[in-house]
Amino acid sequence: MSSQPGSGPARLCVTNAKGGTGKTTVAVNVAGALNERGHDVLFVDLDPQGNATEGLGLVEAYDAGPPTLFDALTDPDRRSVVDDLIVSHPEMDVVPSNIDMLQAEHELTIAELMARAPEVGADPDALADLAMNVTSDAVTDGHALGALDEVLAAVEGDYDYVVVDSPPFYGKLTDTGIYAARNVLVPALTEATSERAVELLIDQMAALEGQTGISVQTLGVVANRVEKTNEDRTMLQWLEEVFADFPVWQVRKRVALQRAFTDGVSLFEYEDSVDMEAVFLEIADEIDERLDAAEVPA
Q1: How far is CA 56 from CA 21, 162, 200, in A?
Q2: Residue 208 belongs to what H/E stretch?
Q3: pLDDT digits (tens, 9 = 90+) for 206-227
Q4: Which end of the chain is more exposed for a tag (fewer CB within 10 A), N or C?
Q5: Each residue of 130-145: pLDDT tens digit?
Q6: Which of 190, 195, 199 is nearest to 222 (CA)?
Q7: Which fold has domain 10-286?
Q8: What are phi and psi of 77, to 5 degrees?
């Protein structure tokens, strides 16, 4: 079962702070695979750069005026505007990112400082002038990481899964995504530079659990753009040792993955059949088994 609280769609966050891992491509294709298995999917682009939003053909939404996802995340009184932000896509519904999200890390950091202020005898409202939307009302349970959780709770729609594409950096926005999902899927390149990024992610999740008291479940690792080199083989062995209790899937380097992304779809809507479809379907099956999603009607 999912470790997230309450009822509703099962949630997962695709996350790795190292840039260039193909995180967004993995997230889109996992969402596409879940759709292929008959699930209704909501895709949330939490990355201020909006790569998934652009890749899914929603450039206009990225440049749209307020209200945006930024407002839903940073203003406790506007969580429900998310209903008006959802855009239809042939494979999934999408909550697009927006250029305003470039300010989200600042706002969530101010909110976290408000949460910590009482610990040092400070008045949280004294920080209000430093924020655009955030007030001390955004602080619950001694932290300010529940924004996306509250936004998703306000979504009106019958989804089986919510897939969150996190930013490619460590910070409050990424923590907010992991906190809301409680389940993570980790994309990683099979190169030596990935080791430090994976170690930092493990530390980050442990710190988040310690701060908030939640449990974060690892669903597995997607070794991405795998080739047949000694470095790839060495890194695959390392990933399998570090994540010995979890599946490690291998997505081979395929031009079609980038071409499908350029066309605004996952491999499952791409015009040419690609062997890596089978890997993403395996990931979807494992997610189904681990998160015990609602049975799809016949």
Answers
A1: 18, 16, 29
A2: helix 194-212
A3: 999 999 999 999 999 999 998 8
A4: C
A5: 988 888 776 766 788 9
A6: 190
A7: Rossmann fold (3.40.50)
A8: -90, 0
